[in-house]
Design brief:
The chain is built from 14 helices and twelve strands. By secondary structure, it is α/β, with parallel strands linked by helices. The strands form four sheets. Strands 4-6-8-9-12 form a five-stranded parallel beta sheet. It has a three-stranded parallel beta sheet with strand order 1-2-3. Helix 2 crosses helix 10. The longest helix is centred in the middle third of the chain and has 25 residues. Bound molecules: L-rhamnitol and zinc ion (ZN). Zinc ion binds next to loops.
Length: 416
């Protein structure tokens, strides 16, 4: 018996069908963010990264052109099992030589090359208006600005992004999740907390008044508790964003697990939101002490989030996207580790006897529940992972890193 067959039998004794788990995971799209490849820079500006987020590190070989970013993305994805979607930001618009339009004037044609890229690879696309890294941010505010010209500019950007999202969905045949996140906020104690939120509410309502097909475009609002330089207050707080989504049909709440107080966990929020929302969206990241956007690992909270999605039978109701950016290590490797980690978390969640464990809970058998939850932790998951990778045609073990070393030597190290 080979290792997979042996592992499969061990799992079967727990009532888990590992073949079914592998087959299921192959169908679940994971949205992979383009911005790990170039430290959230994009192609439409030269200025710094703003909006309260920051990349740290200066590892050589960063992608500087669409061609480089696409090549790096391809390299990383060739080492990752599973179904992927491409997650783009508006600042990754690709202009013709000499062409430039500001963000309020963006059109589908500026994303044609990305659409071709995605279609050739059978991927859908998710999209994000970029409300940061732009000079038209006044006193740190965009959609919640009291300056009507500034606010209107960003509303127009949001509307343009709805049209672009609709185009992406029509072209690829997959719904486009369009996520609204603003870094608006204040460094110090504000005198008016409600005003910016009322303006933010009005702005998103104006953006969503742009016509779109609700089956094709899935607008979201992403909350955040604080950012660098906006420590005291954010317009898009958790309560604001959640309530906005709850009261605006067709708008989804998006939870980024770096955006809450450090003792809060998104794994517990997933089943809470699923009681009310038909669909929700996630940004999967790894906060260390703050919203640091470290590379996602196969760690406890990551596993717990995946477990909740599977246990709630919500794999078709949760849009899963990665969101991290580490500039201190090889970026292609960072991408690969993050994607593989989430895939591992999902596969291991799919290989748990959830019905049996729930039964123990409902019967009040907490003694056995604890025993079983501990026992399943040491089942031979590595053999299931290996089989999944093999079936997906990617390297299962640590040898994938040899490919990174080679790519760094041959490609990344040659970049100016
Ligand atoms: C920032 C948010 C947001 C961004 C991306 C680039 O804290 O998490 O999602 O990371 O839009
Ligand atoms: Zn995020």
């Amino acid at each position: 018996m080979n290792r997979y067959e042996s592992a499969k039998a061990i799992y079967a004794a727990f009532g888990v069908d590992t073949d079914a788990a592998i087959a299921k995971l192959k169908t679940l799209p994971l949205s992979v963010h383009c911005w790990q490849g170039d430290d959230v820079t994009g192609f439409d500006h030269d200025g710094p990264l703003t909006g309260g987020i920051q990349t740290t590190g200066n590892y050589p070989g960063k992608a500087r052109t669409p061609e480089q970013l696409m090549a790096d993305f391809d390299k990383a994805m060739s080492l990752c099992p599973g179904k992927k979607k491409l997650n783009l930001h508006a600042c990754y618009a690709i202009f013709e030589p000499g062409e430039y339009v500001d963000r309020d004037k963006l059109e589908p044609k500026h994303f044609k090359k990305w659409v071709e890229f995605a279609k050739e690879r059978g991927m859908g696309i998710d999209f994000n208006p970029t409300f940061f890294s732009h000079p038209n941010t006044k006193d740190g505010l965009t959609l919640s600005s009291p300056d009507e010209d500034v606010r209107k500019f960003w509303v127009e950007h949001g509307k343009a992004c709805i049209r672009i999202s609709q185009y992406m969905a029509e072209e690829t045949g997959y719904p486009c999740v369009m996520n609204i996140w603003i870094g608006d906020g204040f460094k110090d104690i504000p005198a008016d907390r409600m005003g910016p939120r009322m303006r933010y509410k009005q702005s998103v309502e104006e953006i969503l008044s742009e016509p779109f097909d609700k089956n094709l475009v899935k607008p979201c609002v992403e909350s955040k508790v604080f950012g660098i330089g906006v420590e005291a207050y954010t317009s898009g707080s958790a309560e604001f964003s959640l309530t906005f989504a709850a009261t605006h049909e067709g708008c989804l709440p998006l939870m980024d697990n770096g955006h809450y107080h450090p003792t809060e966990v998104v794994s517990d929020k997933i089943p809470a939101l699923l009681c009310f929302f038909p669909e929700i969206a996630l940004h999967i990241t790894r906060p260390i002490r703050w919203d640091s956007d470290h590379v996602v690992l196969f760690d406890d909270e990551t596993k717990e989030m995946a477990k909740e999605i599977v246990r709630c039978d919500a794999t078709d109701r949760v849009y899963m996207a990665l969101d991290f950016f580490d500039a201190s290590i090889n970026r292609v490797s960072a991408w690969t580790v993050g994607v593989r980690s989430w895939q591992k978390a999902m596969l291991s969640a799919l290989c748990m006897p959830h019905a049996e464990l729930k039964k123990l809970q409902d019967e009040g058998n907490f003694t056995k529940l604890m025993v079983m939850q501990e026992e399943v932790k040491t089942l031979p998951f590595g053999d299931i992972w290996q089989k999944y990778c093999e079936e997906c045609g990617v390297i299962a073990d640590e040898k994938w890193f040899d490919e990174i070393v080679k790519y760094e030597e041959e490609v990344l190290s040659k970049r100016a």
